[in-house]
């Protein structure tokens, strides 16, 4: 894996960063890295990041999959990283409704599938995992397989999702819902450092800081109250959807039992309902960003994903 570390702080020469226009004209930042020359061509992978993420954080993992023969594509979600902002505050991750995210993903994925032949797999981290599964369950996108890494299928709340949503709705009502829900960190009311919530690997955490210092405009910051309310609503609606039981797509879920950002119990409950689920669990040694953890944890995650994707058949 050492060779792939070369890409942790450099855009690969063979990769392209372009712009994609959503049907309503919104401009998104897009990343494409074709499979390595000489590698056995496995197909196309659409990787979707989490809330506030930039795709540069995952270049090391992209390099691994590219060497395995996957062509990698990603885009920044609307309102964060390099895809503009929806409020005057450049450090607030706002969205009106998660339906907008799903609309963007559906339009992008439709065009992406037409650009590539062979297998089409979708990988989503955290919020990206939630939105990939939701779009699949709603029939908005199609894929030969999906991988959900630490998926946001429930928010971590000290009072549980029901009372957490009620409290958020009450607090949101004291001002504009587009204002930041809290000042910093990845979640409110915690003494844990941001790094401690995300990864136990200091060097990989510093890679993210390096990218944000190199591109300050890509820094997103805390979510808006609207985002928080939508996250509660969207996860609640998806988790109750009868479509999960009939979804005929192989889905792998990588869940960290000690995840302090999203609710692992919610992910386990969803996995139990999915028709074709493969569950991989990590213990308290793992944080939220499994693909940016220490080598032992990250290598296991990649190996599990590779084994799962190796079973995806070539479309007839």
TrEMBL record:
Q: Which residues form a coiled coil?
A: none
Entry keyword Isomerase = no
Molecular function in Gene Ontology: hydrolase activity
Q: SUPFAM superfamilies from the xrefs? A: alpha/beta-Hydrolases
Q: Where is the Serine aminopeptidase S33 domain?
A: 41-295
Supply the InterPro entries for this chain: AB_hydrolase_fold, Hydrolase_4, MAG_DAG_Lipase
Keyword annotations: Hydrolase
The protein's name in its UniProt record: Alpha/beta hydrolase
């Amino acid at each position: 894996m050492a060779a792939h570390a070369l890409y942790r702080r450099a855009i690969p020469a063979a990769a392209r960063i372009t712009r994609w226009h959503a049907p309503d004209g919104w401009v998104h930042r897009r990343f494409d890295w074709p499979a390595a020359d000489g590698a056995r061509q496995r197909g196309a992978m659409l990787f979707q990041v989490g809330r506030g993420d930039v795709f540069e954080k995952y270049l090391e993992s992209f390099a691994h999959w590219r060497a395995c023969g996957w062509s990698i594509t990603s885009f920044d979600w609307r309102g964060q990283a390099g895809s503009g902002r929806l409020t005057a505050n450049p450090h607030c991750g706002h969205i009106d409704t998660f339906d907008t995210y799903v609309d963007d993903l559906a339009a992008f994925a439709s065009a992406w599938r037409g650009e590539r032949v062979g297998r089409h797999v979708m990988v989503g981290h955290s919020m990206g995992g939630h939105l990939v599964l939701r779009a699949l369950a709603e029939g908005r996108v199609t894929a030969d397989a999906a991988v959900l890494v630490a998926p946001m299928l429930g928010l971590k709340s000290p009072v549980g999702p029901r009372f957490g949503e009620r409290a958020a709705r009450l607090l949101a009502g004291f001002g504009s819902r587009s204002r930041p829900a809290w000042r910093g960190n990845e979640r409110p009311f915690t003494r844990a450092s941001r790094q401690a919530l995300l990864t136990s690997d200091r060097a990989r955490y510093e890679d993210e800081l390096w990218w944000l210092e190199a591109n300050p405009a890509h820094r997103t910051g805390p979510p808006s109250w609207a985002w928080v309310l939508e996250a509660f609503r969207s996860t609640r609606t998806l988790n109750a959807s009868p479509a999960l039981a009939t979804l005929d797509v192989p889905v792998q879920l990588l869940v960290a039992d000690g995840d302090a950002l999203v609710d692992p119990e919610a992910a386990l409950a969803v996995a139990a309902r999915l028709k074709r689920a493969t569950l991989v669990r990590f213990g308290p040694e793992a944080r939220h960003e499994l693909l940016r953890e220490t080598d032992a944890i990250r290598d296991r995650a990649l190996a599990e994903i590779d084994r799962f994707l190796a079973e995806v058949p070539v479309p007839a």
